[in-house]
Batch of 2 targets.
Target 1
Amino acid sequence: MTERLYYHDSYLKEFEAGVVSAERAVGAAAAGERWNVVLDRTAFYPTSGGQPHDLGTLGGARVLEVMDGDDGNIVHVVEGNVTKGWLADWAVHGAIDWARRFDHMQQHTGQHLLSATFIELFQFPTVSFHLGRDACTIDLETNALSTEQLEAAERRANEIVFEDRPVTIRFGSAEELARDGARKEVNREGTLRAIVIEEFDLQPCGGTHVTRTGKIGTILLRGAEKAKKNWRVEFVCGERARAAARRDRELLVQTARQMGCGPAELPAMVARGIEERQANHRSRQRLLEELVSVEALTMLAFRSTQEKTGGTRTLARIFNDADADYMRMLAGKLVAEPGVRVLFASRAGGQIVFAQTPGLGGDLGALLREMVTAAGGKGGGTKDFAQGNVPDGRGLEGFMEKAGDRLRE
């Protein structure tokens, strides 16, 4: 069983260990000569409990992944031939990627503090934790979470950070930890490792943590969203919080500059822009409806190429740049008249619209579906109104001619 050095000292950056086994990785993961190495002791943290594994080197070879193996061993996936450059007695020097490790320590300890804060203030338990590359999340067991609650939790958590309370490690059974007020019950036998934030939180955990709350750095809540029955809160700590705040500020300043105002005036400018866009949209819709009405009257009254069969007028037209919305509106106006059938297509996107006055014979949905499928497109609809598209708008003349032939049949 691998001795886990990080259990007692998360600040251990380098260590010496003996090699228990080293086997060449098999399968697709073996590309580029990879080995699975088990040591008698290690400071490398394996992926577990929502925290990613450490990176670093073993004997100068890059450690690509660290994972829990069988029988309590930790497996290090190492790049390169591990038998070269290592000592004859199979001793090896390990070095942790400290920047990555310390970042994970800040985020994970910040999560403990934040989860304890939501319990203290609102009795919202944490049901899951994820430490991502750019941000972290906790899922809270609650049906509702307000902005005011987020702000209160952020403020209280940072109070504990600024008090610089000790963060210590203790060991005990599940019963002992529960008796002493562990935040979350753990159903495991034997001796458990727990993290203690002085007079604030006790939680069983095997992860790596800072030694004082002040080393977490600022805790910044980035937002929250509903996640199934729970609420997911995104947060960052330490250097991540500083970098996120800087990015947010730069984005705000850049956006304000593009809007021709100062950052403080940006909300009002955005609100005004939304109002103007909505007004323009309403105006555009009114003009579009007027245009559609005029074009429909023109087509019904003067279109010389319309085909009349058995009292039914078939109006066929290929547009150069009309979109599907316009063709649907125009078709709707036309087929509101008795005895009208419409075959529309547009070279812009290969859009197709077939429509007819309700009660006319034939199934335009079936016809359109058959034709666009044969042309490599897709679509469908009812017997009186159908739409779709074909991939090549350049071949619409033949498509429309065939559609007319099928209707005549």
Target 2
Amino acid sequence: MLNLSLKKKLVRAQISEITEHHIYKRLSEKIHDPQNKKILREISEDELKHYNLWKKYTQQEPQPNRKKMWWYYLMARIFGLTFGVKLMEKGERKAQVHYNRLTGILAEAKLVIKDEERHEQSLINLLEEEKLSYIGSVVLGLNDALVELTGALAGFTLALQNTQLIAVVGLITGFAASLSMAASEYLSKKADDGGKQPLTSSIYTGIAYIFTVLLLVFPYFVLSNVYSALSWTISNAIIIIFLFTFYVSIARGYSFRRKFLEMIIISLGVAALSFGIGYLIKTFLGVGA
């Protein structure tokens, strides 16, 4: 006979398991890759097995969390299957801590823990996806645009002292750099026998670069004060770094804090250095005076 506290914990575990069962099942029905489809079906079946295992103790049939179902499903559809699934598996690690506490009470908890570990270590690692395979090209475009253009705009801000002029010069610089970076990525991948399509890699790099350029330059078209525009641009850079670092940390399993701080230090460090160079140019050459 279960006490009330333990029964409530098992019911919550049931809700989590049946919710994830439906998410994995629905995702498996929406993808075409046979290997990924097989992986998701296996995980879905395991989650249903866990649900029925706890049902023997609770004698209840709780319904899935509909909001959670839609959230993770949309994350997977918008940002890619690997990101959505690994984000959900990250939540399952918390469940493993909960199950560890149950091992001394319910022997079946050990079986559930083994299944959850298998999901993380074996099944999820088998996921392959085009979006993720080209993540290096996106990183190249974003990193280069953030470092180069944030620094350039900081230098232009003090040297030129005109938001419209800075915006135009920033756009020209950014678009020219994006084409150059995309071309370099194409030639690099073409010379490499790694298997990636050089044209696709260059497109990913170019799009990431242009997207970053537009977000960084936008404040100079809206504001008239150059320092307010620069502050907004730096804020946009920090937001881009935060969002992309979060994505990569989930999809690739990197340390979020370490990657985030690394990109922040490099981007803002270059911006500060460029701002200083802009000051020297303005002072000694009289540009923008």
